[in-house]
Amino acid sequence: MEQLAFTYEMGVVAALLAFTVFLFVSELIRIDLSAILVLVMIGMLSYLPGLESLANVNNLFDGFASNAVISIIAVMIVGAGLDKTGIMNKVAAVILKYGGRTEGRILPIISGTVGVISSFMQNVGAAALFLPVVSRISSRSGIPLSRLLMPMGFCAILGGTMTMVGSSPLILLNDLIQTANEGLPEGSKMEPFGLFSVFPIGAVLILTGIVYFLVLGRWVLPAVPARVDGTTAQGTQSYLKRVYGLKAEVFEVDVPADSPLVGQILADINLENNLYIISTFYRGKVSMVQILTAEIAAPCRLAIIGKSKVVHSFARKYGLHVRPELDVFSEEFATTNAGIAELVIPPDSQLVGKCPRELQLRKTYGLSLLAIHRGEETLSHVETEDHEPTAIGLVEFKPGDMLVSHTRWDNLTRIKQNTDFIVVTSDFPQEELRPQKVGWALLFFLIAVSLILFTDIRLSLCLLVGAVGMLLSRVLSIDEAYRAVGWNTVFLLASLIPLGQAVQNTGTAAWIAQQIMFILDGWPLWSLQAGVAILATVFSLVMSNVGATVLLVPLAVSIAVAAGGNPAVFALTVAISTSNSFIIPTHQVNALIMGPAGYKVMDFVRSGGIMTILFLVVSLTMLNVVF
Question: Ranges for the RCK C-terminal domain (predicted)?
Fold first, then answer.
């Protein structure tokens, strides 16, 4: 192999690489701005004598139209479309139902599911689709989003090693093997890999990632406070206690068919028992908007707001069963769907002088009135710290009354247009869900996935088919699609693409690879394979994993043949190791989750450093066990 000379251009590229890593780790400026700065520097340096090969300035911004960047934009739009129909809410509810609300149970379900999905579609697509699901799970369980997104993202990357269509390097590998075979003697030619040839390796890697975060997650994962879709909405219990002194919780209670409660009126039950029945579940239907003069029909379930002692006493009196946690009502009381709202009655409101029962407040406005704050006094069915319970359903409204109500956010959005109320609460998700569009959303999602799995059409075009379909069917408006795109992620990735091209085009990557291989010359076979894996890992951090694979597979095959190793295993080592991208957020998935979770680069260095070592050890071990 001819020795490559280290050139002036290589030195400049190496300096740019070091500067980029310094900016990322130090975070002197925002990471996306750092990437844009590096892009500008590459462009300007290319005009200097001797640096013309650094970048083709006419194609400097081609990264913004690259397959990877357009794919990310499209998959964000597709994910937002699915989320708009409420599907992601239902997925989150199912995960919470089976996973409970503890990190130790939720984390493996989310991470394992995303890992399996990413084995058949691009890992960034799987991560983007599950991003709103994890956000909702975080808000409902109280687990910080930062403790769930990194395990999900890492497992999405690991899932790409489970099939030969799970990542671009593995898709490309068989073509590279075919090309490499042309220069090999007959006895050394490699056989192409089957679809599931790498399944055992990928499965063990996903399992390793899950176990890693379960065991060490408390130390390596940051705990950025959880947020609810960018709002500061609070749970019903904590809000009522903190603001109004209402010592109340939400309970789910089973009412058997033979209960003496059957036939009694909701309003009378509330008043006589110092509690508040806020929702019912009867004949498979949850209803939060019913008339308080309605009678109890059983068997049914009730969602009751009240003091724990009062509710359990009430249950014993009428032969009811209090469930340990919310089940059928969990979706209705999720802070992403509903919560506590404060509304003021203005002087010119038509509601002045009328009582909630007369107005049928629940049925007409979708407001479940929990308390009326009047001056220094709080009136409520539920006993407060300073006052006895009051039949607020019969209290006539006065100008200036503050109504504390539980309502769905879509109801509150409509009420904001009603001049009879002044909506004080502003920090709630003011988005309109479109469940009637679920069919269209699923149709175009399935079309996009089918195109990805069963055709050779370019990934970005497949995903754009789904995105455009959702826009044309009005699952999303075009303005909502623009808002759904994380433009910081787009600029981060697009701006780094020229740096990766410079590393490759100037021969810097080939020179680095050659120096390492010369150092490893004569070492045992296993150390050569480890060196190839480490080299592929490093290259995947500073250039595209496809570029690293194209560059290193021929080199790895040559090393294997010279050392008497299996060239196919060495080639596969490269393709799998280019997925070992956890230390800095240059991988598409890491860039995607960085903003929503509030991660810093050092969070990836800390968590990803250990994951990188585990990946190397496990993948090399499994490669030699399986092959």
Answer: 238-320, 328-421
Residue 261: give the domain boundaries.
233-322
Query: Which CATH number is 354's domain given?
Result: 3.30.70.1450
Q: Of 384, 404, 423, which residue sits at a domain end? A: 423
The Cα–Cα gap between 448 and 472 comes to 15
- Are 582 and 611 in contact by the 8 Å Cβ rule? The answer is yes
pLDDT computed for residue 596 by the predictor: 81
- Count of CB atoms within 10 A of residue 132's CB? 23
Among 345, 267, 259, smallest CA distance to 300 is for 259
Give the contacts of 163 (CB within 8 A, at least 6 positions apart).
119, 120, 170, 195, 196, 198, 199, 202
Instruction: Looking at 221-342, list the stretches that DSSP marks H as alpha helix, in order from N- to C-terminal side.
Output: 236-239, 266-273, 308-318
Number of domains in the chain: 2
Strand order in the sheet with 285-287: 285-287, 276-282, 300-306, 249-255, 321-322
Contact (CB, 8 A) for 394 and 353: no
Helix axes 8-26, 31-45, angle to 10 degrees: 160
pLDDT in tens, 20-49: 878 877 878 888 898 899 899 999 999 988
Q: What kind and span of H or E run contains 344?
A: strand 338-344
Q: Taking a C-beta distance cutoff of 8 angstroms, is the pair 12, 51 a contact? A: yes
Alpha-carbon distance of 395 to 385, in angstroms, equals 20
Look at residue 345 and tell me whether its pLDDT is greater than 80: yes
- The whole-angstrom separation of Cα 572 and Cα 376 is 72
90 C-beta neighbours (distance < 10 Å), count: 15
Residue 101 tokens read as: 């609300």
Give the C-alpha distances (Å, rounded to integers) separating 107 from 227, 462, 574: 18, 30, 29
Would you tell me the crossing angle of helices 487-505 and 67-84 to the nearest 10 degrees? 160
Task: Examine the fold and report which residue of 423, 447, 464 is the final residue of a domain before the chain moves on.
Answer: 423
> Mind listing the pLDDT tens digit for each residue in 517-556?
778 777 888 888 998 999 889 888 877 677 778 778 877 8
Residue by residue, DSSP assigns 125-144 as HHHHHHHHHHHHHHHHH---
179: which 2 tokens?
A: 């090309």
User: Does 572 reside within a domain?
Assistant: no
The verdict on 391 and 344 lying in the same domain is yes
Specify the 3-state DSSP secondary structure of 53: helix
